[in-house]
Amino acid sequence: MLQIDDLHVRYATAEAVRGVSASATPGRITLVLGANGAGKSSTLRAAAGLVTPHAGRVTLEGRDVTGLAPHKIVRHGMVLVPEGRRVFAPLSVEENLVLGGYTATREKSAEVLAQVYEMFPILGQRRAGAAGLLSGGEQQMLAFGRALMSSPRVIMLDEPSMGLAPTMVESVLGAVRGMADAGIAVLLVEQNAEMGLEIADEVVAMARGEVVFSGPAEQARSNASVLLAFLGEAALVE
């Protein structure tokens, strides 16, 4: 389980995240919604160790991992799939996947690689091809697979459907649901609120770096604060 408590993130004098608390539990998806600049990505980056929190605490299965280096957080069982996929384009699909399993033994890496190919058959079919030749949706599947190679218990996903054709969004978010159904705790930042709410179990809505709603997804679907947070900052000033 991932627990984020009273997290604050600053860039110089600007406070991007102000007292955010959120959690992700095994087998469930926590969806983080908010307009651009709401602090969503900064929250994930701080939890992943990519930026150092100014204050607050991040715990993973009860272990304090606040401010640890990213590779150490991966070894503790949590991984971030960043916005934009960021696959290694010149390398083959399989080489990208193997790099994701650097924390595992060779035997374990081979075992998980087989599982990834079973989950994403298109990757198995393209394993020898350059990752840069994959479509946007296929590259996102590759980014998922690379993250799964470390056998994470918690996976954080930053805007996985961004830039994808509408026909691919459903497949990508379906894969996210599949990861949760396999027992992984998922913390998901997603710009497609409608699709995100369809697969989410819990919702955290952010505005101006703060949480304006936290609760079950079914409540979020009819909560004005959630809708306003997603529609933008201007909609909140009334």
Structural write-up:
- It is built from ten helices and ten strands.
- The chain is of the alpha/beta class and 238 residues long.
- A hairpin with a 2-residue loop joins β1 and β2.
- The longest helix is centred in the last third of the chain and has 16 residues.
Bin the helical content: 25-40%
Count of strand segments: 10
Strand share of the residues?
Answer: 25-35%
Q: Give the radius of gyration.
A: 17 Å
Structural class: alpha/beta
Overall, the morphology is globular
Major sheet details: 6 strands, mixed
**Secondary-structure element sequence?**
EEEHEEHEHHHHEHEHEEHH
The strand order across the widest sheet is 6-7-8-3-9-10
Overall residue-averaged pLDDT value: 90
Alpha-carbon distance between the two ends: 37 Å
Number of helices: 10
Q: Low-confidence parts, pLDDT < 50 over ≥5 residues?
A: 232-238
Secondary-structure map with pairings?
Blueprint: E1 2-11, E2 14-24, E3 29-33, H1 40-47, E4 55-60, E5 63-64, H2 70-75, E6 78-81, H3 93-100, H4 106-119, H5 121-125, H6 136-148, E7 154-158, H7 166-181, E8 185-189, H8 193-199, E9 202-207, E10 210-216, H9 217-220, H10 224-231
Parallel strand pairs: 3-8, 3-9, 6-7, 7-8
Antiparallel strand pairs: 1-2, 1-4, 4-5, 9-10
Structural key phrases:
single chain, 238 residues, alpha/beta, 10 helices
In short:
The protein is of the alpha/beta class and 238 residues long. It has 10 helices and 10 strands. Helix 3 packs parallel to helix 6 (136-148).
